[in-house]
TrEMBL record:
SUPFAM superfamilies: PLP-dependent transferases (SSF53383). GO terms for biological process: lysine biosynthetic process via diaminopimelate. CDD domains: AAT_like (cd00609). Keywords: Aminotransferase, Transferase. It comes from Noviherbaspirillum autotrophicum. This is Succinyldiaminopimelate aminotransferase. Residues 32-390 form the Aminotransferase class I/classII large domain. Its cofactor is pyridoxal 5'-phosphate. GO terms for molecular function: pyridoxal phosphate binding; succinyldiaminopimelate transaminase activity.
Length: 401
């Protein structure tokens, strides 16, 4: 077996299962989970219909590059959403089976393991796929801690000068999971200058981009590059997904877009890897990317939900409305005298509510675990269920304090 598999840590939800083992939650309360970021709003009927109407496509092998119609729909969405100049759908866009598999696969195509000292730079806390992708590509992850003083942006200025020449791939997530932070144009400018100097590829994970709470939509990586005059998006690959935007996590549909030279190699890798998208899913994806009304309605539901729940939780926890995304990233050590893992364990036992300990979403790096004494709450269910969960969390936290 591949010995690199032994470097993979248990997934956060496996750690949570072990944390809860042997616990029988209080039966006076119905179970509510805020632990997993799986959208629970209904899937739009027109997307379901598009799948049903195109089942005849199951009789055909799909091309890895996807259909012309799908690439054109993605190009159109990128141009409308970010104010970008026309994309070349044939060379700058690839459909993928959800951003997760593509985030993993990109490292396998980008990393040169023969160098022996290759690094993959990751934010901390982070989406665990980044770490696994680094190890399986023969590289080592290098974690840059998110700084609450920088609106939870990774503090790249803290990285020693001798680290940057070893970096071959840099993952970032904006809006961030779990913090909800959005990178600024100045943040992007700093990263682009580093990429120019050291030659690494930037993988911009933007799957939460369409759930936001401010008037202006979150800045995207391709948008930042365009504003900074970076024609052709050198060494930049953006990842997006329909899962959160359109409430279709089971469809496994997204895309990657950016630097045509990187995309050419990535297409070659995916052709061998077997990364083609099913034709009915492609047809449904075309319908989803071409419609914004359902996205606006979905966003309005999140805005209303967070507007009610954030002030409730602020009565007992140190928590703020994020820039974007559907998570609340709350600090528990100021007002309660227990750790994030103990908080999650006792909340589950006493109130039958599941949240994810923040330390499970990060690694100890540079002397600290930046997720320690925080909890992530995924407000993905309908508002009534989230309100009920928030009420229980407040009652539990007040009891502790």
């Amino acid at each position: 077996m591949n010995p690199l598999l032994d470097k993979l840590q248990p997934y956060p939800f496996e750690k949570l299962r072990l944390l809860f083992s042997g616990i029988t939650p209080n039966s006076a309360y119905s179970p509510i989970s805020l632990g997993i970021g799986e959208p629970k709003h209904p899937t739009p009927p027109f997307i379901q219909k598009a799948i049903a109407d195109n089942l005849g496509g199951l009789a055909n092998y799909p091309a890895t590059a996807g259909s012309d119609a799908l690439r054109a729909a993605v190009a159109g969405w990128l141009e409308r959403r970010y104010g970008l100049p026309p994309f070349n759908p044939a060379t700058q866009i690839l459909p993928v089976n959800g951003s997760r598999e593509a985030l993993f696969a990109l490292a396998q195509a980008v990393i040169d393991p023969s160098r022996g000292d290759a690094l993959v730079m990751c934010p901390n806390p982070f989406y665990q796929i980044y770490e696994g992708a680094a190890y399986l590509a023969g590289a080592q992850p290098y974690f840059v801690n998110s700084d609450p003083g920088l609106n939870f942006a990774p503090d790249y200025k803290s990285v020693p000068a001798d680290v940057w020449p070893r970096v071959q791939l840099l993952y970032l997530c904006s809006p961030g999971n779990p913090t909800g932070a959005v990178l600024t144009l100045e943040n992007w400018k700093e990263l682009f200058e580093l990429s120019d100097r050291y030659g690494f590829v930037i993988a911009a994970d933007e799957c939460y981009s369409e759930i936001y709470f401010k008037e202006d939509a979150p800045l995207g990586g391709l948008e930042a590059a365009h504003k900074l005059g970076r024609t052709g998006y050198p060494r930049l690959i953006a990842f997006s997904s329909l899962s959160k935007r359109s409430n279709v996590p089971g469809m496994r549909s997204g895309f990657v877009a950016g630097d045509a030279e990187v995309m050419k190699k990535f297409l070659l890798y995916r052709t061998y890897h077997g990364g083609a998208m099913s034709p009915p899913i492609q047809a449904a994806s075309v319908a989803a990317w071409n419609d914004e009304q359902h996205v606006e309605e979905n966003r309005a539901k999140y805005i209303a939900k967070f507007k009610q729940i954030t002030p409730m939780l602020q009565e007992a926890l140190d928590v703020q409305l994020p820039d974007a995304g559907f998570y609340l990233w709350a600090k528990v050590d100021k007002r309660v005298a227990i750790s994030d893992t103990e908080f999650a364990k006792r909340l589950y036992a006493e109130y039958n509510v599941t949240v994810l300990p923040g330390s499970y979403l990060a690694r100890e790096a540079h002397g600290i675990n930046p997720g320690q004494n925080r909890i992530r709450m995924a407000l993905v269910a309908e508002v009534e269920e989230c309100l009920e969960a928030a009420g229980r969390i407040v009652e539990f936290a007040k009891k502790l304090s």
